[in-house]
Amino acid sequence: MGVLDALNLDGKNVVITGGGTGLGLEMVRGMAEAGANVAIAGRRQGPIDEAADMVKGLGCKSMAVSTDVTDTVAVNALFETVLAEWGDVHILFNNAGIVRETGRPPLWEITDESWRIGIETNLSSAFYCARAISKHMADRGSGKIVNVASGFGFRGGRDNYMYTAGKGGVVNITRAMAVSLGRYGITCNAIVPGFFPTEATNATSMSLPRGDLIPVGRTGFPKEFGPVAVWLASSASDYMTGEMFIVDGGGLAGGMAPTGYGPISELA
Amino acid sequence: MPVPNEWTLEGKVALITADARGWAAVLAGALAEAGADVAVAGDSPEHVESAASAVRKEGRRAASFVGAFPGYAETDAAVSRTVSELGGLDILVNASLNQLGKPTLDTTEFEWNTVMDANAGSAFRWARSAGRVMTEQGSGHIVNVISEMAERGLTNHAAFSASQAAIQQITRSLSLEWGTAGVRINCIATGWVELNPPPLEEQQKELLVRYLPLRRKGTPDEIATLMIYLAGDFSDFTTGQTIFVDGGAMAHA
């Protein structure tokens, strides 16, 4: 058996939140191509139904479960449904998040409601989902939890509170879960995407880094997301836990200086 | 099994450095399994040959360069020979380390210079030699396999950990310098990884192992697919990064 066999996800059951669109959809595609059955949770029925059809088209089982991930009753029901149908959940992808609801108001204009929804969606949902399924994983003695954080989990964004605070929380809850759940055979890691133009990011007015601020000189292609998701979901990554897998074109490595900035000087 | 087609290194040529830990055989074999032809360079004939034979066992072409690589002349020559013997150079894996664990008060100037040169100096030279070909052709992937002591300190490891941090900084800077030239460079930082770790019960007698969240040591094949990913075209948006494969050690406070 070669090392690449470890990437096989045949017979593995995955639950992914926010899997109907954007990068979530790319992760769904990657996992189905690697042989996994994928349960897709999302707010809107249309996109998750289409994603489920795509998975079935690739020869894997799929279900689309309309779920508000900020509602713990709905989250618990999601996992009960998947367990009732498939018996096992091996992999959880906490991908649901909202970049921004509307506009970019100054701090003093952010409402309680908008703060609450932002934190609930970007951070609490990952906790709710992990809480709902981790006991099942611990009882089996194996499981993989993959959170989706963001470069904004490591640095601030201007007029950007719920996303940066939520993603910063995701970074550290990933470490806490890794340290706590390792003894039960569960690993927990996070993917940290840089700027990938998707429906959600395009719909906002955020001032996001464009190609000329990214060391590789371009934004990410959504298809560059699937392989990393497969690796983190598979046994190939079994010795990695509590880590952040950064896929950002070099953005975090170089701070935010413009691409190519590098003063020349001679030794004195 | 169906290997996801993103993971193929078909048609690519890799150059990997081998040291006495024996990891290069595992990693070179994995590169070959993914479809690459592989050149192996190192100063131990035994370890270079075992890595080359792991490549041939996968049905791929191998080249071996046994010797010391103390300067640009030697690394440039190995890169040129890789290009002429295997037809190109797409991937460089720096998998060779020189470890030193010694109280700082006893560490000689020679030891400091040696560990810095064998690790940071060597990684820099190999990257520079490979980078000349890669920036010219507008593509290439460099993977530096380092220790997580790049980020964490350790008693008796002041020189070694500094040499690892230096590779991390070389990686970050080159990711910026060569980003628009199509060259990607990343590190895989390992924790307590061994070629043949003792049985689990034996390992867990060590306090260190019980401290690790996964409560075990890792093996080189557990970094193999990550190396393949970082060596292939589907990681083209990943650069300047250090990815830790360490059983959770870094997640601790």
Main-sheet strand order of chain A equals 3-2-1-4-5-6-7
Order of helices and strands of chain A: EHEHEHEHEHEHHE
Percent helix of chain B: 40-55%
Number of domains of chain A: 1
Low-confidence stretches of chain A: none
Estimated structural class of chain A: alpha/beta
Helicity level of chain A, as a percent range? 25-40%
Summarize model confidence as the mean pLDDT of chain B. 94
- Give the N-terminus to C-terminus distance of chain A in angstroms: 57 Å
Average pLDDT of chain A: 90
The total count of helices of chain A amounts to 7
Number of strands of chain B: 7
Strand content of chain B: 15-25%
Structural class of chain B comes to alpha/beta
Radius of gyration from the alpha-carbon trace of chain B, in angstroms: 17 Å
Order of helices and strands of chain B: EHEHEHEHEHEHHHE
User: Remind me, CATH topology of chain B?
Assistant: Rossmann fold
Widest sheet, order of strands of chain B? 3-2-1-4-5-6-7
User: For this structure, what is the CATH homologous superfamily of chain A?
Assistant: NAD(P)-binding Rossmann-like Domain
How much of the sequence lies in strands of chain A comes to 5-15%
Which helices and strands occur, and which strands form pairs?
The complex is a heterodimer of chains A (268) and B (253).
Chain A (H helix, E strand, L loop, with lengths): L12 E5 L4 H12 L3 E6 L2 H13 L4 E5 L5 H15 L4 E4 L17 H29 L2 E6 L13 H20 L4 E8 L5 H4 L23 H8 L10 E4 L21
Parallel strand pairs in A: 1-2, 1-4, 2-3, 4-5, 5-6, 6-7
Helix pairs in contact in A: 1-2, 1-7, 3-4, 4-5
Chain B lengths: L12 E5 L5 H11 L3 E6 L2 H13 L4 E5 L5 H15 L4 E4 L14 H29 L2 E8 L10 H20 L5 E8 L9 H4 L3 H5 L12 H8 L10 E4 L8
Parallel strand pairs in B: 1-2, 1-4, 2-3, 4-5, 5-6, 6-7
Helix pairs in contact in B: 1-2, 1-8, 3-4, 4-5
Description:
- The complex is a heterodimer of chains A (268) and B (253).
- Chain A is an alpha/beta fold and 268 residues long.
- Chain A has one domain: Rossmann fold.
- In chain A, 38% of the residues lie in helices and 14% in strands.
- Chain A is built from seven helices and seven strands; from the N terminus they run βαβαβαβαβαβααβ.
- A seven-stranded parallel sheet of chain A has the order 3-2-1-4-5-6-7, with helices on both faces.
- Chain A is globular, with a radius of gyration of 19 Å.
- The termini of chain A are far apart.
- The model of chain A has no long low-confidence stretch (mean pLDDT 90).
- Chain B has 253 residues and is of the alpha/beta class.
- Chain B has a single domain (5-246), classed as NAD(P)-binding Rossmann-like Domain (Rossmann fold, 3-Layer(aba) Sandwich).
- Chain B is 42% helix and 16% strand.
- Chain B has helices at residues 23-33, 45-57, 72-86, 109-137, 158-177, 200-203, 207-211, 224-231, and strands at 13-17, 37-42, 62-66, 91-94, 140-147, 183-190, 242-245.
- Chain B has a seven-stranded parallel sheet, with helices on both faces.
- The termini of chain B are far apart.
- At the A-B interface, α5, α7 and β7 of A face α1, α5, α8 and β7 of B.
